[in-house]
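Could someone model zinc ion with this protein?
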Amino acid sequence: MSEYDIAFVNATVIVGDGSVLKRHTVAVKDGRIAAVSAVANEPIEAGEVVDCEGKWLMPGMIDVHTHTAMWGGETDWGNILDTPDEYLMVRAATYLPWWLEAGFTTVMDGLARRDLSYELRRAQRDGLVTGPRLLVAGHSIVATGARGSFFGPREVSGSDEALRAARESTAIYRNADAVKLMCTSEVLTGQMESRVQLIDSELAAAVDEAHRSGVPVHCHAYGGPGVKAAIEQGVDVIVHGQPIGWEPGPSNDPSIWQSSRRIDGGKYADTDYSGNYQLMVERGTIWAPTLSYYDLIRNHHWDEFRSAVNPFICSRVDAVATAMEENFRRAHEAGVKIACATDSGMPFTYHGDSAYELELYVRYGMTPMEAIVSATKTAAEALWLEDRVGTVEIGKSADLLVLNQDPTKDIRVLQRKGDVIERTYLEGRLLSVSGKVVVPTRETVLGQLRQLETLEEMLGHRSPYLTGALGKRITLPCC
Ligand SMILES: [Zn+2]
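Reply:
Sure, complex below.
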């Protein structure tokens, strides 16, 4: 028997941490990277040898904020209200493979509709659908009355309820991979205003419960006040954060950003939030920008969007899209850690198109290598998976891409999917070859189902995504 299952030889390795290894061999055993070495003198013993002469080997990419219940093709996302879960599930099974063609091997579902994404996670894990490793944040925890019933958010008032809502996600039978909070209103529904909807004690209780359960907290926040409260209460990832360092005015006029506002019985408060960038750096809070979603609506599909969606919502999209470049430049220059996040599933933001997000990061100041790190090492950190994925290192999961173009020269080559991404491996399994996804067969499904959860995964209280598993009963909350 060969020492290794697969060996990639003569590869230029883009490690994922900003470094490059020339003419290296990367060997895989049992789904993990078992060796990384300069070209060996002796021929390597492996079941399969992949000659990467003239090619690049890099970690599978990661998107830390997506929505698997939606798919991007509906201008008015409210249509989803009339669509049954069963249909959404079948549709999701169709677009999950698109991620692999595009070189994304891990994605986080940032807001579940009921238990749809938990069940999708299980189906992927059990080998019933071909897709990326799916992580699930479960229901969004919001302030009572803060948000419509769109996705069945979990409304809370008070820290006890916030703790309970977080526990409903992280309890062993659901085993969410993150806890999702929304501490301000959003762009496409409700009011975009500065008020922080979850108070500090609620944020802190949910954060504490999530961390005790071993998962990070991702918090949706628009505008300086919400971002500041979330950072101070210890959330790990700010999702959207448009803008981080100032706050939107009430008029939605994109040229007017509020510099002061009345709070506490009419007094004007100090509303300088420019310190938020530095605060994120000090606390190590990661930012998940989701620029694709604003850019695609505002700069590529504006007429179509405006013809379908009411003017008030359009004005909010306009305001956010106008803020995004300055906000990104300020965050990046301050040294805020940025993780690739697209909000895919939102209008015009299709699953599998996430490499476009990296082009925007480069347009607004990152080097191509920095953009790659945002979708590999930093994205893994945002999901608390940096010990397992995100870089080409011994012991990490063999989530690997073989490319025929150099993305460190031109980040846009990653958008060419199967033309450039010749092979996508997830846990050492070859799942996409030049854009053609390997579909499950009876043999692969049976093989996957024979594997059981490992004790390590159970004790670690994390979803057993590495081994494949079955029999997890996902229950609805009892309240
Ligand atoms: Zn989202």
